[in-house]
Amino acid sequence: MNILLLIGIIITSLTISTVGISLYIRKYKTSEAITAIYVIYLALSQILAMKLADFWGLPAPAAVIIFPFVFQLTDTMNEHFGEKATYRMIVIGFVTQVLMVFFIEIGNLLDPSPGWVWFDNADWVLLFRQQFGIIAASWIAFIISNFFDTWLYAWIKRKTGTKALWVRSILTDLPSLALDSCIFVTLAFGVFTASPNWNTVGLTILGQLATKWVLGAIDTPFIYLDRWIVNYKRKPKEEEISS
Predict the structure, then answer these.
(1) C-beta neighbour count of 174 within 10 angstroms
(2) Which of 51-65, 89-103, 150-164, 194-208 is predicted most confidently?
(3) Is residue 243 part of a domain?
């Protein structure tokens, strides 16, 4: 794994999404851009979760690279539009995940056309096969961890006001990401598995935590970039002052 290339892609994607969302909020004072990117990230996490990747010798679903940014978006929504708006976004995101699962299953059930020769249908079905245990674990972990993150962020914000933005970001992301990993991996590869390997479950949780926390630290400066773009006040030009 090329770490520098991976970090470069992550930082580039974070910059694009942060700047785009912040400029949208600055111009329109509404939250649609946050919700749109949030839904896209969730959809991608469903797809990437199908690959078990190696992170520093520890196994973890490839989707772990997305979840720190998912929680960054809940923090951004909470920061600008409040706790209730964040809860609404989580519900919208959850509904889109459910619908995505249904439509993937519909695609699996459709017979392939005889002219579709560049991809074997059996491989397609194997790749996108829906496993109830993993789906259920994903949904349960998603709802609990995202609602917890939103509640904790709002609680800390009431205590800190507009100060200590980094405290709100870190003190909510770290426990929320840990909660998400522990619930998902324990349920998906332990409780909902006929013959669970608890050693693998423990290693997978460690792999998720290590990756999520590192990436969670990377995305903290982008919260400040977002606030700077949204709140930046342009100095009036001399001719504007004189007029």
Answers:
(1) 17
(2) 89-103
(3) no
User: Taking the model in full, what pTM does it have?
Assistant: 0.85
Asked if residue 173 belongs to a domain, the reply is yes
**Residue 105 structure tokens:** 């299953």
Mean pLDDT of the 32-58 span: 86
Tokens of 130: 């829906």
> What is the spatial distance between Cα 4 and Cα 12, in angstroms, rounded to a whole number?
12
The CA distance from 30 to 23, in Å, is 11
C-beta of residue 34 within 8 angstroms of C-beta of residue 144: no
Structure confidence at residue 209 (pLDDT): 81
What pLDDT score does 168 carry? Answer: 86
Is residue 122 in a domain? yes
For residue 52, list its beta bridge partners. Answer: 61
Question: For residue 49, is pLDDT > 70?
Answer: yes
Domain of 108, CATH number, reads 1.10.1760
Which 8-state DSSP code applies to residue 56? T
**How many structural domains are present in the chain?**
1
On average, the pLDDT of the chain sits at: 85
Task: Give alpha helix (H) positions in the chain.
Answer: 3-28, 32-48, 67-81, 83-109, 121-128, 132-160, 165-186, 198-218, 220-231, 238-242
